[in-house]
Amino acid sequence: MDNEKVSTSPKFVSLDEAAAMTEGTRITFIPGVQALYAEALKNICFAKGIPIIRAVHPLMGVDKETGKDRQARLYELTSQTGLPTMFFNAERPRNVWTEQLALAERIGSSSSPTLIPDNFQHRAEMYGLCAVVLSEDGMVWNMRILNDGPLGRKYGYSEEASTLAPGKIAEVIRLIDACLEQQASRGSRYLVGDSVTAADIYWATMSMSLMPTPPEIMPVTKQNQGMLKHFASNAQRPEIAAVLSQRIEDHQRYILTTYCETPAVLGGDPL
Description:
By secondary structure, the chain is mainly α.
């Protein structure tokens, strides 16, 4: 995909423009693609009532015309290449989900839900659930190494790791399902406590990689149609299919349609 040829509706600014700004919240995205961590951060900001400015995230690989690494400038600005980068006012860029979440909680609307619980027991539960979904060797990490490819190799793909990955993904799903079952028994629709937390939003967003979602939640674009097919195929893997429950699907749909931006606004070229 050539970034210069991508539709700019909604508006996307360049990476350099985003880095040069001294006011506002800027987040990098790939237009037309629901990159999981970027989509999750967008949903966190949506729940917190934070207006965002979208910036184009450079793709992996070498530019065919210049022969240069497409992400060299991103690395120069942020000392890393992961998606998304979050800029706020003139502060340093944030690239790790824990820092992005803490920033969103700090700058969010005073009337928005508290996504990092004040109760430290609940806070520990929230961060623990997020970690097994988002962190190294967690659900998303293992989803990325299911198949060989540039992204899989970036996250340590090997035949052995790929063979173990479906079982690890299934273990996380079982953990989430057990939390939801226990919470439902005490009358809560949420993973932690009695109100929405970051765990709900991160899980609901990331679980789209394991459960197909309808267009009214995730629209199809020219850029994301292949990714959507890949996500749908994940749900057909025996280890994963065996542990996906109606309870998990119901929670996903409730969180996405109640607290997140749906249908997702991606830009790119809608189909």
